[in-house]
TrEMBL record:
It holds the Pfam family Methyltrans_SAM. One of its GO terms (biological process) is rRNA processing. Residues 25-310 form the S-adenosylmethionine-dependent methyltransferase domain. This is Methyltransferase. It comes from Vibrio renipiscarius. GO terms for molecular function: methyltransferase activity. It comes from the Bacteria. Keywords: Methyltransferase, rRNA processing, S-adenosyl-L-methionine, Transferase.
């Protein structure tokens, strides 16, 4: 990364912080390659806590200037206006993503708000803190389309889509994920929002070994597929996604919708469109959802892809 570009980073962070709503937001997304010399930096605002991530090793001078600039930011008017409390620097290139608290007292389990809904985060223990911020408009779409729907949420993680679906009036959501600990956090997220847990099911199963159980709760009006790009021993994108697509016709209602997502830069939209045409030709491609503007990418096909299909 380039030391002489740090001024651009701080200027953009301060500008975005000033206009950010009182919700969780990404303020700077270097990973989208739109900021030359700053490709390995991100900055997230967690409603009082600023989390800066460095994804590759940098020299001592760059690190020193980065910390000095963050200290200066903490003395600004906008920091006071937004009631900033804490600045955390995470070294994502090192094992365990070690963190440094540069300012204030760090809260590792804050509750944040996105689109009016509450989520419990868990920062520092894993590289991901429990809510993928680039999926905000996907969750908004689910909320807007879930009224009276029976929803299947595959690779549910901490159940962000499920929270959005129940908030949007879904009758039932079935969440499936191998990680029971993530599903437990999903249960917490529903409880934070005062949802009726009787409307939500949490299945800690391997999806590919559980189609019988999954089908019992169907047919579904909405199916959400948001897998990891790769998970050792359980999911490989180019090999396993098709196995899910071919199951969709048996799981969907006649007018059911599918939100199929992929976040690997190695594939473009045609991976999903062509895959659906081959494995589930009954389903029609409708649209690709926009990504949040703060996640601008120099190559839109390399960024998050959320595609809507209809039966």
């Amino acid at each position: 990364m380039q030391l002489n570009q740090l001024a651009t980073f701080f200027s953009h962070v301060e500008t975005q912080l000033e206009v950010a709503p009182d919700e969780v937001r990404r303020l700077f997304h270097g990973r989208g390659q739109c900021w030359p010399g700053l490709e390995q930096l991100t900055c997230d605002w967690l409603q009082g806590q600023l989390i800066v991530n460095v994804f590759k090793p940098v020299d001592d001078e760059f690190l020193s200037q980065l910390k000095q600039g963050l200290t200066t930011l903490s003395q600004s008017d906008v920091w006071r206006q937004k009631q900033g409390r804490t600045i955390l620097l995470q070294h994502r290139y090192s094992d365990g993503a070690p963190s440094e608290v540069l300012l204030g007292e760090f809260d590792p389990r804050p509750v944040v708000v996105e689109s009016g809904l509450k989520y419990q985060l868990d920062i520092g223990r894993n590289q991901n803190f429990g809510l993928f911020l680039d999926m905000r408009l996907g969750r908004d779409w689910v909320k807007a389309n879930a009224k009276q729907a029976n929803v299947l949420n595959l690779f549910a993680y901490t159940c962000g889509f499920s929270v959005s679906a129940i908030a949007g009036g879904a009758d039932q959501v079935v969440n499936v994920d191998m990680a029971r600990s993530s599903l437990n956090k999903g249960r917490e997220n529903h409880q934070l929002n005062g949802h009726n847990i009787n409307q939500v099911r949490f299945l800690g199963h391997d999806i590919f070994k559980s189609w019988g159980k999954i089908k019992k709760s169907g047919p579904y009006d909405m199916i959400i597929i948001d897998p990891p790009s790769f998970q050792k021993g359980s999911f490989a994108l180019t090999k396993d996604y098709q196995k899910i697509l071919r199951r969709l016709p048996d799981l969907l209602t006649d007018n059911g919708q599918v939100l199929a997502c992929v976040n690997s830069p190695a594939v473009d939209c045609s991976f999903l469109i062509d895959g659906m045409a081959q494995e589930a030709p009954e389903l029609t491609y409708v649209e690709r959802l926009e990504n949040p503007p703060e996640f601008a990418d120099i190559n839109e096909q390399a960024s998050l892809k959320c595609l809507v299909f209809k039966n």
